[in-house]
Design a protein that fits this description.
Organism: Saccharopolyspora hordei
Protein name: Dihydrolipoyl dehydrogenase
GO molecular function: dihydrolipoyl dehydrogenase (NADH) activity; flavin adenine dinucleotide binding
Largest sheet: 7 strands, mixed
CATH class of the largest domain: Alpha Beta
Number of helices: 13
Mean pLDDT: 95
Number of domains: 3
Binding site for FAD: 50, 160-162, 327
Cofactor: FAD
CATH superfamily of the largest domain: FAD/NAD(P)-binding domain
Number of strands: 22
Radius of gyration: 24 Å
CATH architecture of the largest domain: 3-Layer(bba) Sandwich
Length: 486
């Protein structure tokens, strides 16, 4: 039996960060991981999708090269090459994480962990992937037989992540009905695809396949796409998608999927009931905790009705010496949140102080145009009782956006009316995922509209948009028309 000060079950963006930080604090650390290090984020989520979206972005840019005075002929998509590049990027990063774990003295045990007590596990060889040899092993069941290793630790961190939700939908088990994991197994760009779910996952795949030439329909039950975002952002994305030829169906649900002579038929219910003929149906309606076959009941940890593990502000569960981080806690299913939770848990176990502020969590969706946000939407701020001032500034009014050739979208800032404290920032437009950092820092430092407006920003940059929006919120815009007087 191997023994450690800390055992981390799961080597994703939460688990490997926790392991490294704990090792830096002098603890002996083991990690049980049944796939390559990096978890869903590096292997099946954040990184591979962004690598493929970058290929789509390059393709789209080249198609419009003549607008920039560059003549390019015979532009085409090599989907095999796109997939190979994606795999190369993933391998480079997962190999990098493995190297970091090794250089920090962390012991990695390959296999599937099953708890035998709160701080003891048996490790089994990993069974077949639910999607075959090329599918995600993070969701695979343990193989039969005796355990290949037994492990004991003083403290344990559960960091097993999440898996896609399967809809209880007639026809959900038909060939051609896939999840976001299954989308990576597609060997060619689908001619026609229906995407069920208009949140980040569905919207990103819609962007990718539409750009590469698919006929895309996206179906969302809420009033706007990306319903967690500010309503103005969701509406703007819907308009943008429609202009790009994506069929956007909001306030609509799918009641069944049937086989047809030419592929699949999706039955859509809503204000305009209809049937859509497609070749592939991608289900992207959410994720659930990845705790199957973990024997979690043997730890005694408390869970919610949806199966997420309950934790306190330091990521402790109700069981002494057992912690949980990342998607499995259901706090915020984002890789960067998992990483920060990993730091907090590791520091706490090592006897140091660390904290996390769930009110200041930036989020990004890598559609075209990109979306990013932090803090409260305008509606949420009003519901919380704030007297609100809100203002938008368009990318079209930025010299850098004009010169770059991408002027779609805006930044919206939400602030308290009396003191000007920043309550939320919401962006749809080029490089939104990078620009949101200023909004997060402003909230973390309790900055005001005046402070943002008075901070000199470099020109010409996209980053000026935060300063310009703050000026607009103060009623003193320079580069857009002043608000009409009532």
């Amino acid at each position: 039996m191997q023994e450690f000060d800390l055992l981390v079950v799961g080597g994703g963006p939460g688990g490997y960060v926790a392991a490294i930080r704990a090792a830096q604090r002098g603890l002996s650390v083991g990690v049980v991981e049944k796939e390559r290090p990096g978890g869903v984020c590096l292997n099946w989520g954040c990184i591979p999708t962004k690598a493929m979206l970058r290929s789509a972005e390059v393709y789209e840019t080249v198609q419009h090269a003549a607008e920039f005075g560059i003549n390019v002929e015979n532009v085409s998509v090599d989907y095999d090459a796109i997939r190979r590049r994606k795999s190369s990027v993933v391998k480079g990063l997962t190999d990098g994480v493995a190297g970091l774990l090794k250089s920090n003295g962390v012991t990695v045990i390959n296999g599937h962990a099953r708890f035998t007590g709160p701080t003891t596990v048996d490790v089994y060889a990993t069974g077949d992937s639910p999607l075959g040899a090329d599918g995600p092993r993070y969701a695979a069941e343990p193989a039969g037989g005796a355990p290949i290793e037994q492990v004991k630790a003083r403290d344990v961190i559960i960091a097993t992540g999440s898996v896609p939700v399967q809809l209880p939908l007639p026809g959900a088990d038909l060939p051609g009905v896939i999840t976001s994991d299954g989308a990576f197994g597609l060997e060619e760009v689908p001619r026609r695809i229906a995407i069920i779910g208009g949140s980040a996952v569905g919207a990103e795949w819609a962007t990718l396949f539409s750009t590469l030439g698919s006929e895309v329909s996206i179906i969302e039950m809420q009033k706007t796409l990306v319903p967690a975002e500010d309503v103005e952002v969701g509406k703007a994305l819907g308009r943008s998608f429609s202009k790009r030829g994506i069929k956007v169906l909001t306030e609509a649900t799918v009641s069944r999927v049937d086989e047809s002579a030419d592929g699949l038929t999706v039955t859509v219910d809503g204000a305009k009931p209809q049937k859509i003929d497609v070749d592939v149906v991608l289900v992207g309606v959410g994720r659930k905790p990845n705790t199957a076959n973990l024997d979690l009941d043997k730890t005694g940890v408390a869970t919610t009705e949806r199966g997420f593990i309950t934790v306190d502000d330091t990521l402790r569960t109700n069981v002494e010496h057992v912690y949980a981080i990342g998607d499995v806690t259901g706090k915020a299913l984002l890789a960067h949140v998992a990483s920060h939770q990993g730091v907090v848990a590791a520091e706490t176990i090592a006897g140091h102080h660390a904290s996390i502020d769930y009110d200041v969590i930036p989020a990004a969706t890598f559609t075209h145009p990109e979306i990013a946000s932090v803090g409260l939407t305008e509606a949420q701020a009003k519901e919380a009782g704030h007297d609100v001032v809100a203002a938008k500034f368009p990318f079209a009014a930025l010299g850098r956006a004009q010169s770059y050739g991408d002027t779609e979208g805006f930044l919206k800032i939400v602030a308290g009316k009396k003191y000007g404290e920043v309550l939320g920032v919401h962006i749809i437009g080029h490089s939104a995922s990078d620009l949101i950092t200023e909004g997060a820092l402003a909230m973390a430092l309790e900055a005001t509209l005046d402070e943002l407006a008075e901070t000199i920003h470099a020109h010409p940059t996209l980053g000026e948009i935060g300063m310009e929006a703050a000026m607009a919120a103060l009623g003193l815009p320079v580069h857009v028309a002043p608000p009409k007087k009532r």
